[in-house]
Amino acid sequence: MPGIVLKVTVRIVALVAALLSSAVLASAQQVTGTPGSPSATTTVDGRYLPNPPASFGGEIGLSSKDSKPYWQPNIVPPKGAPNILLIMTDDAGYGVSSTFGGVIPTPTLDQVAADGLRYTQFHSTALCSPTRAALITGRNHHSVGAGVVLEQATGYPGYDGVIGVDNGTIGEILRQNGYATSWFGKNHNTPSYQYSDAGPFDQWPIGMGFEYFYGFMGGEADQHRPFLFRNTNQIAPWEQNPDFNLITGMADDAVDHLKKLNAQAPEKPFFVYYVPGASHAPHQPTQEWVDKIHAMHLFDGGWNKLRETIFANQQRLGVVPKDTQLTPWPQDLLKNWDQLTADEQKLFIRQAEVFAAYVAYTDHEIGRVIQAVKDMGKLDNTLIIYIEGDNGTSSEGTPNGTPFDLAALQGIPIPVADQMKFYDAWGTAATQPHMAVGWAWAFDTPFKWVKQVASHFGGTRQGMAISWPGHIADLGGIRPQFHHMIDIVPTILEVTGIPAPQMLNGVAQKPIEGISMAYTFDKANANAPSKRDTQYFEIFGNRAIYHDGWLAATTPPEGPWFMGTKAMPDVLSYKWELYNIAKDYSENNDLAGQMPDKLKEMQERFLIQAEKYGVLPLDNSVLPRVLSPKPSYVAGRDFFVYSAELSGIASSNAPNILARDFTITADVEVPADGSGMIVTNGGKFGGFGFYLVSGKPIFTYNLLSLAKFRWEGATALAAGKHTIAFDFKYDGPGIGKGGTGTLTVDGQQVATQQIPHTIPAIMSLDETFDLGVDTRTGVNDSDYQVPFKFNGTLEKVSVKLGPSQMQ
């Protein structure tokens, strides 16, 4: 009996609590229209999402004649809540845009700044996925599992690449408060091992609160043939438009989407998250924009002169304090312009022009999206946040640049003489280029260092402008307060009048770690003290801590352009620097030797933050993290069998042949003169293909466009059934080693060859694993053109993998 009474009592208490909660929610709601009518609307409390439905307010009799219907009201945001256009470009440091002193014309960003405010101390994390995770959650990147890019995820809470259900995104919050939510462009926040038709899709945009997604998966994309999706379906618009470029394609799609929203639900506010892949490599603008920039001769004086020009512009515009010092050129790391050969200067100018064209082209297309909002008459109630870059300018192109950035990402330099062969094709679909490090350093003026370097502002300082007509009166104003990506979500929540939820989809939420910047909108607060007094930074072991005008930072042991291929010191042994950035905006005067006690205080403060936000354990490895096992559907498997035409499988969910022995065996039935693709992974810029041409079996190994190795049978296969196989013995251990490949037909060897090198760690970022067909680009244009469908029958294709020999 006591147990029964206790259970009943608990149930009553729970019921009372639920009723009280409902009463609180109901009291906070603002209902418009006649309750129960089809046109009635309501706001929601927002602290507990989804909002529980109201009780049925109609009447139910024996028949509809003596009954009264009642409709649940449509959920809407608080009255006056603005539309939101959140824009962020890629790999662009503080000195890139004309808005912040750069020489590259960015008139759209200029206009947003003229219609609102420029922020001169706004910060990223120094790397793609981490910044983006912080931006959409309002929490530090390690707090949401994004301590590195997701391809490098490891099994620690701060680095597992998963935005947990207790870290709801701004998309999900706004969606459940009545916004139409959409995401255009780069998605580098889905774990690569979840690029699968099998799902789950909770870590895709549509699973994170964005009702519509048009964009590419991963850290970068070929703009002509991207790994492109609409929601969760792969699409290939270039099949209808051979001149397709994603920078224009996503603007077209965004404009079309906004027009449809306006036509069908004109009163419903929108939240558009617009994140183009530019100016991340590969730099692929249109020829029109390359010609425009070339005619301006912006870079003829070289990178040293460029820094001086940008710095002078910054002083003139007032986007650096008057007493700012230009940090010195890193003589021990990079050559001065006048030390270069004539060919080097010619090539490097071309690289910079293509990069600049990419930046300007992207800004122009962003302008089209903003113009569409204006044409709908909605600009007056639209909050525009335009962030130039998710980190500093990238140095991942090596000191000499590269026509094939996937080679550079794996630490493979290409001599200038070889690069000159691609001079006229630079930036076209025939290349996937990146520029020399000297330009990256210059585009981060006035600071030191570049992308990946979280310890210095060259890696973390971003130009940002915010406009909101009628709510920001100090048009063209400058705001110097110290802020971070995590401060955008609370800013959006404050201006919309929507609270951060305590419960979201049944899960208690971690607190938002950002601080609203809305106080800076008031002209009276133009020079108010920053409400953010502490912020840590960490990427690949480079780390820093800001507190109350001071910043302590580790000295990077190597340039990030080496991509971790050089031996690194123990991550705990790094040298530290100390700066009073309240007086030293550019981190020019290191005070560590003069103020050891202050440095020690700051170091201890970093450790407190690191433990609080999941930064530990510190790790300065780069490629090893790419190669570390991930929990994909192929994890632990060493044998794969396929039996039908199939295309579009992401490399992360396909057999990984790198740094190991492997055997591919195909049981096929072919007609006379059989042709077509049997199996391939990758394409023009790296990968393999196993196929028939005029009946002859061929295996091609494309070493990142640097070399192609080809095995070919001497005679054509007779019509009928055959077993053809390619067996590869790897010369491990280690990455990028060579090996010996042998091609057989019906058990008889027909070709063998030893190759000196293989792809080290990344076969492709935007191509796929295909059987019976080849999509996007082919591994050997001399042999075939896509789609190269197999004209026989694939009875079975198997892939057998040996143990990894990466170490």
TrEMBL record:
GO molecular function, one term: arylsulfatase activity
Enzyme class, spelled out: hydrolase
Domain Sulfatase N-terminal: 82-498
UniProt keyword terms in alphabetical order: Calcium, Hydrolase, Metal-binding, Signal
EC number: 3.1.6.1
InterPro entries registered for this protein in UniProt: Alkaline_phosphatase_core_sf, ConA-like_dom_sf, Sulfatase, Sulfatase_CS, Sulfatase_N
Signal sequence bounds: 1-28
Highest taxon of the lineage: Bacteria
Family annotation (Pfam families): Sulfatase
UniProt record similarity statement: Belongs to the sulfatase family.
UniProt name for this protein: Arylsulfatase
Organism this protein belongs to: Rhizobium binae
